[in-house]
Amino acid sequence: MNISAIAERIVAIHPTGYRTLVALAGAPASGKSTLAQALVEALNAAGHGAVLVPMDGFHLDNRLLETRGLLERKGAPETFDAAGFIHLIGRLSQEAEIAIPLFDRDRDIAIAGAAMVGPAQRIAIVEGNYLLFDEAPWSRLSDFWDLSIRLDTAEDELERRLVQRWLEQGLDAQAASERARRNDLANAVRIRERRLPADLLIET
C-alpha cells in the first residue's frame, strides 16, 4: 500500500475524540520515522492538518538510566516514561492544544515542551517501537488508536540498518555490530514476540 492510499484511509476515519490518532509501530530501524514523515507531508499537502508525534521524546534521561543499571538497555520498554507517554496520548485524543517532548539524537536527550500540537492539526501520526506491544502498561495504548499500522522487517535487514545507524553515530565497526546485536535486535525480538494485531501490515 502506497503513501497516498494510506493517507486516504486516514482521512476517511471518523475519530471518537478531538483528533484522529494513527499508530505507526515497528522495531528499531524498520522505517517508522521515514514513513511517518511522508504521511504527515502528504496529509498536509492535501489540506488535512497533520502532525508527527514520536514516542522517542519519552526516553528516560541517561543519568536516571545509569542509576537504575539500564543505560546499556536504552531503547527497551523499561527505559521509557511509559505512564507519561500514555497520558500524552490520552490528552492528544481530547485536547485541542498540547506541548510534546522531542528526542535530540545528536545530544542523546529528550527535550520537554519542544513542539506544539495545535487545534488545526486534527490528525496525529504517532510513531514508536511499543505502540502495539502486549505488555503492561503499553497494552493500554491500543484503546486510543483509530488506525494502527505495523512495519515488519526481516531480521538480517534490521541488523544491517542498525549497524549503519551506529556507524553514522561514530562507533567503529565492531562496536556498532555489538550494540546492534546486544540491544536493538534484542528489543526487536521482544517486540515481535509480544506484538498486538494491527489494522495494516507493511513489509519494509
Give an overview of the whole structure:
The strands form two sheets. A five-stranded parallel sheet has the order 2-5-1-6-7. The chain has a two-stranded antiparallel ribbon with strand order 3-4. It has one domain: P-loop containing nucleotide triphosphate hydrolases (Rossmann fold), CATH 3.40.50. It is globular. It is 38% helix and 22% strand. α1 crosses α2 (32-45). With 204 residues, it is of the alpha/beta class. It has helices at 3-11, 32-45, 62-67, 82-94, 155-168, 173-193, and strands at 20-26, 50-54, 98-104, 109-117, 123-128, 147-152, 200-203. The chain has six helices and seven strands; from the N terminus they run αβαβααββββααβ.
